[in-house]
C-alpha cells in the first residue's frame, strides 16, 4: 500500500508497496494500468506521457460487478471479481499487465508520528514497528505496514515526521489474488483516497493561480457511501465518509416500479424510466443528495478552523445525474461542477470523447492509480 510512500521506506515484505519498477525493468516509466475495484464495478485507466507534465489517456473501460461480490470494500467473491477483472482487461485492449490497485480508506489505518532524524534505515524500521504497535489494534504479524518519511517536523527541526499506513494482510492478499488470477501483476497498492487526491490536485493545478489559497471540497458519491474531503494548496485538511450513495436512488426505483435491482440500475443509467419518474423519484433524491452535501459542509465548518469553501467538485457515478450540480450549487451557494480527472489530457485514438464526458467522473480513483506510473 503506497500511502504517499517511497519504495525505499517499506517495513513489510508484503505486496503493500510501490516496487521500484525502473530498476526492475530498466525503463523509467514502464506501462502501468490503474484498476479501481469498487462495490458497483471495476474501472481501468491507462495513461502515457507525451511531454513534461503532459499526459494522454490511452484507454479506459469499466465492467459492472455482480451484487454482493464486493461489500463495504471487502472482496466477498474472489472468483466473480477475478472474472470481471479478466474481462475488463481484455475489453480495454491494453497490453500492459503491470497494475496499480487501491485499498478502501476505511480498511487502512494511517498515523503521523515524530521520530528522531539521522537514523539508519534498519534503525528507522525498528522504531516504526515499535511505534506502530501503539496505534494498530492487531498483532503486527497480521498486518501489512508501510511508512514514509515526510520531512522535518514542523516544530522540531531535529526530528522527522513519518506517515504510517497499515491494513490487515488478508485485505491486501485478496486484491493481489484477484489481479494475479486474472493474469496481471500488481506492483503498487495505494489508498483509494490518496489516489483520488493525486487526480484532483492535478485538476486544481489548472485553476487560476493554480488554485493557490483556495479551499476545494471534493464529494465522491459512490454506490453506498460519499467520501468527503477538503484540500488547501494541495494538502488534505479534512476528510470523512457519509453513508449516502446512488444505491438509495436505485432502491427507490425498485420499490416504485417493481423492478429487480439489476433492471433498476440499467434503466437508471440509460434514463429509461416511466413518465413521472423525474417528479416522483429523481427530484426527491436530488434534494436528499444536496441536503447531505450541505450537512457535510456545515460539519466541516464546525469541526475545523475553516469557515469557507471556494469550490465544490462532484465525482463518482452519481455526479452526472441530471440536475444534481444545479441543486447542490443552489443549496450550498458555492461554485459547483462535475470533475473529470482527464481534463487537459490528450486523448488516445481508442477514446471516444462524447462517451468520456459521461463516464469521466467515475474514474477519479482509477486515474490517480494510473498516475502512479509517473512517480
UniProtKB/TrEMBL annotation:
Domain SHS2: 32-200
GO BP terms: cell division
SUPFAM superfamilies: Actin-like ATPase domain
Pfam families per UniProt: PilM_2 (PF11104)
NCBIfam families cross-referenced by the UniProt entry: pilM
Identification of the protein by name: Type IV pilus biogenesis protein PilM
Lineage: Bacteria, Pseudomonadati, Pseudomonadota, Betaproteobacteria, Burkholderiales
Amino acid at each position: 500500500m503506497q500511502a504517499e510512500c517511497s519504495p525505499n521506506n517499506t517495513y513489510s515484505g508484503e505486496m503493500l508497496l510501490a516496487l521500484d519498477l525502473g530498476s526492475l525493468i530498466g525503463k523509467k516509466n514502464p506501462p502501468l494500468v490503474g484498476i479501481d475495484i469498487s462495490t458497483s464495478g471495476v474501472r481501468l485507466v491507462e495513461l502515457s506521457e507525451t511531454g513534461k507534465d503532459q499526459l494522454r489517456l490511452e484507454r479506459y473501460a469499466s465492467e459492472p460487478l455482480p451484487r454482493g461480490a464486493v461489500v463495504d470494500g471487502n472482496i466477498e467473491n474472489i472468483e466473480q471479481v477475478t472474472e470481471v477483472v479478466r474481462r475488463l482487461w481484455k475489453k480495454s485492449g491494453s497490453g500492459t499487465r503491470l497494475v496499480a490497485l487501491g485499498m478502501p480508506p476505511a480498511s487502512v489505518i494511517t498515523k503521523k508520528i515524530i521520530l528522531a532524524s539521522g537514523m539508519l534505515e534498519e534503525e528507522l524500521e525498528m522504531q516504526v514497528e515499535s511505534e506502530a504497535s501503539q496505534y494498530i489494534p492487531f498483532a503486527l504479524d497480521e498486518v501489512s505496514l508501510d511508512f514514509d518519511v515526510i520531512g522535518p517536523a514542523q516544530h522540531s527541526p531535529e526530528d522527522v515526521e513519518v506517515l504510517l499506513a497499515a491494513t490487515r494482510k488478508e485485505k491486501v492478499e485478496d486484491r493481489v489474488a484477484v489481479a494475479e488470477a486474472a493474469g496481471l501483476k500488481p506492483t503498487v497498492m495505494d489508498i483509494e483516497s490518496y489516489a483520488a487526491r493525486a487526480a484532483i490536485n492535478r485538476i486544481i493545478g489548472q485553476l487560476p493561480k493554480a488554485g493557490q489559497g483556495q479551499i476545494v471540497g471534493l464529494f465522491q458519491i459512490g454506490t453506498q457511501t460519499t467520501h468527503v474531503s477538503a484540500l488547501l494548496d494541495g494538502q488534505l485538511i479534512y476528510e470523512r465518509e457519509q453513508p449516502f450513495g446512488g444505491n438509495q436512488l436505485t432502491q427507490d426505483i425498485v420499490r416504485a416500479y417493481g423492478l429487480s435491482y439489476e433492471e433498476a440500475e440499467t434503466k437508471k443509467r440509460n434514463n429509461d424510466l416511466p413518465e413521472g419518474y423525474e417528479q416522483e423519484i429523481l427530484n426527491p433524491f436530488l434534494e436528499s443528495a444536496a441536503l447531505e452535501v450541505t450537512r457535510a459542509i456545515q460539519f466541516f465548518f464546525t469541526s475545523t478552523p475553516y469557515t469557507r469553501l471556494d469550490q465544490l467538485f462532484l465525482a463518482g457515478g452519481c455526479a452526472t445525474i441530471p440536475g444534481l450540480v444545479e441543486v447542490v450549487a443552489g443549496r450550498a451557494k458555492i461554485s459547483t461542477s462535475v470533475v473529470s480527472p482527464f481534463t487537459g489530457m490528450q486523448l488516445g485514438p481508442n477514446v471516444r470523447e462524447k462517451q468520456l464526458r459521461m463516464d469521466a467522473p467515475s474514474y477519479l480513483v482509477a486515474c490517480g492509480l494510473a498516475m502512479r506510473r509517473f512517480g
